[in-house]
Input
Amino acid sequence: MRLNNYKFVKKIPWIYYFSVIVLLLTIFLNHQLGKQLFPSNTYYYATLIVISLALVYVYFAGKYFEYDSEGSLVVFLNKGAILSEFISYRTKIYEIKREKIKDYKIRNLLIYKRLTVFYSTKNTDRNFRVNISMLSPRKIRFMKLSLDKIIDKNKANL
Output
């Protein structure tokens, strides 16, 4: 089974750049209007904090995710959505043999979702984490079904 969140992630750079423009425009207009854009400085700073937090969230949670369980390897790909065409510094690719996957866990932290996959190597058990925040609930359900099927097959072979 192959799934990804490309349709949603292709909108992330525009959201990010729009937020940067709104942040800069807010600062510029407030300075040009003699600090009369907002009734008090509290509203101004609250607006700056909210926009800045939105920028940080979009930067860290807005990642492209791809899952491929066709073939003998299960592939998890996670890469940044902003500047990923130019600089590939946030790309993480995990390729694991189907037989090595032991378990998985999905943590849902309100606005951030993380998939942790537990697998075995020759001597130890290891895990890795990938960001699935921008993956739709339907695709998460399909991925759970696929991983459950792989884990059940692995437990039956033991």
